[in-house]
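Re: the multi-chain job from yesterday

Posting the exact lines I submitted so nobody has to dig through the queue logs.
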Amino acid sequence: MVYDLVIVGGGPAGASAAIFAGRAGLRTAVVDDGTSMALKAVVNNHLGLPDGVDGPDFLALGRRHAVTAGAEWIETQTTSLAVADDVVTLGTADGQALQARDVLLTQGTNTALAEEAGITVEAGREPWIKSVMTVDAEGRTSAPNVWAAGTVGGTSVHTIIVAGDGARVAVNLISARRGARHVDHDKLDDPVG
Ligand SMILES: Cc1cc2nc3c(=O)[nH]c(=O)nc-3n(C[C@H](O)[C@H](O)[C@H](O)COP(=O)(O)OP(=O)(O)OC[C@H]3O[C@@H](n4cnc5c(N)ncnc54)[C@H](O)[C@@H]3O)c2cc1C
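And the result, structure tokens for all chains:
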């Protein structure tokens, strides 16, 4: 079975991308090894959460939302990435070989997997972020069908910004596959005014 999209990293960037991909009907999996930097955070600056939220609770909400949207959540570490014949293959620590038409890297501070696969990285500009993937305006890396978003895509290290970036790149890759801009809007049955 070949996934439409495998997202490596289930922090806010990856979970947000998974929500858009799952709702768009893409066969989507998130692979996550449970080391998000948000595990240590108390988030008091995220739109819609005026009372703040502990990082672990925030991550759990993201996972629940992604799964509700249709994404599969796989708890393991991705250990290798190879691109051949329009399919990206990800090896995992528990011996799986996951195949996908597109892969989105949302690995936070971790660029090792991409570097080992020969994907171009560059110096990070945010505090504590040593390296990030080199991406184009859409979020494509130097490898075909491999995209990056969130911290590892070079965005500002804040939950609202990386979540927005995950959604942005997901919309770009959905649109690229479909050949038309993708929009995901639901509307009220009885709008006021
Ligand atoms: C102490 C602290 C406090 C913070 N406070 C705030 C705050 O108040 N407000 C705010 O906006 N931001 C805060 N942040 C920043 C916030 O946590 C980050 O912006 C956010 O978590 C980045 O999201 P991300 O999805 O890019 O990366 P992460 O959240 O780091 O997610 C990356 C995910 O990728 C997974 N992963 C990596 N490599 C692999 C692999 N090979 N295989 C499988 N999975 C992999 C990891 O397990 C992880 O879950 C804080 C950060 C810290 C450290």
